[in-house]
Amino acid sequence: MKKPYLETMPDEKGYFGEYGGSFLPPPLEKPFQKIRKAYDELSRSSDFLDELRYIRKHFQGRPTPISFAKNLSRYCAGANIYLKREDLNHMGAHKLNHTMAEALLAKKLGIKKLIAETGAGQHGVALATAAAYFGLECEIHMGEVDIQKERPNVIRMQILGAKVVPATHGLKTLKEAVDSAFEAYMSDPDQQLFCIGSVVGPHPYPKMIRDFQSIVGFEAKQQFKQIAKVDLPDMVTACIGGGSNAMGIFSGFIDDDVKLYGVEPMGKGENIGEHSASLSYGTAGVMHGFNSIMLKDKDGEPAPVHSIGSGIDYPSVGPEHAYLHKIGRTKIGLCSDDEAIDAFYKLSKLEGIIPALESAHAVAFAMRYAKQNKGENILINLSGRGDKDIDFVVTNYPPQILS
Questions:
Q1: Residue 163: strand pairing partners
Q2: Which of 60, 61, 187, 313 is the most core-located residue (most Cβ within 10 A)?
């Protein structure tokens, strides 16, 4: 019998086809080998898995439900739209699914400090939460632009005890936050754990984060049959920046006859610096220790990017997403800033659910798809709630000017 996809990918060197791997400076090779060995052992440990299950049930509040968006479905007058409610996960996003596991890994390794990057702040809040739970130090690197834009999440990180370090170079957004966090991690890799916030980075992080996030897809597959009264959705969709929430929900359906759409941010246009649509406009390249598809400038360096969603304005994408897109298993949808804002308000007004701007990209694409595919069943991974975005949205896109 053919093995399930998740058991075959990546290979032992962390490659998904030609993408992935580990491209590290010599000082980091040994610490990453240690992380790889620890994860391989702990992922098969019943004690580790039992503790993780306890945390998910009694601290995170899993399983998160699936909601039928009946009013949004009626508005679109086409397909039925369902939402996997990761916004109801503790702290309001899917990120806690992997940060609690990463912190538990650090605890098992005897490491006392967690370090990470964040864009929209959801990963930073989740890691600060995990650090508080396990009694660990926490340092979060965040672009100066995003610190201003996502102020509520910055305050939450600080209340939880994390040190927030601004990235002040370049565009001062997510890529620069990753640069800054890597630099800080390299100063003492033996006493810190770099808790990458998506399915990106050197092996084993793309696999490890996918595995921790796969709970979303496995739950959704069981729940969907109960709520929709059919075995499987016709289409599953999620936003993609690095792509952790998308790989999380795709994992549950990857071996099934289900269409999988990752939604990339088209921002303000097709020119370099106006969008963050890596798979749509990028080429192969190495950045932040892994090989994938990335947006490049005329000199072949990571290009400037833009998205209204701070968590998805990244010039590359997880290597597994690059692989799945290349072999045709996943398809790409696009969503502009304006479409995301429209979906943000539509879901809020029609369903009483305020989505994160990142998640609103998937909602916008699903609305467009629903209108064109009458009778189908769509499942969206609603990866986070929009508390963090409301000040930015109402200041720049006040509701009275929208239709």
A1: 139
A2: 313
Select which of 180, 336, 383, 388 is catalytic. 383
Here the tokens at position 367 are 């609305």
User: Which CATH code fits 61-93+214-401?
Assistant: 3.40.50.1100
Over residues 232-257, the mean pLDDT reads 98
Active site residue 358: no
- Amino acid identity at 186: M
Per-residue pLDDT at 27: 87
Whether the bond between 166 and the residue before it is cis, its omega within 30 degrees of 0, is: no
Mean pLDDT calculated for residue range 316-334 = 98
pLDDT digits (tens, 9 = 90+) for 182-224: 889 988 988 999 999 999 999 999 999 999 999 999 999 999 9
Compute the C-alpha angle 305/311/317, nearest 5°.
65
Q: Is 403 a catalytic residue?
A: no
What is residue 190's predicted lDDT score, i.e. its pLDDT? Answer: 87
Catalytic residue at 95? yes
- Cβ-defined contacts of 169-172 (< 8 Å, 24+): 170/304, 171/143, 171/145, 171/304, 171/305, 172/143, 172/144, 172/145, 172/146
Amino acid 401: pLDDT: 55
Do 141 and 117 form a contact (C-beta atoms < 8 A)? yes
Helix or strand run (H / E) with residue 379: strand 377-382
In this structure, whether the domain defined by 16-57+95-205 belongs to CATH 3.40.50.1100 is answered with yes
| Fold match, 16-57+95-205 / 61-93+214-401 | yes
In the chain, domain spans: 16-57+95-205, 61-93+214-401
Summarised one tens digit per residue, pLDDT across range 70-99 is: 999 999 999 999 999 999 999 999 999 999
Point out the catalytic residue in the list 95, 175, 221, 388.
95
- This prediction has a pTM of 0.94
Other Cβ atoms closer than 10 A to 54: 10
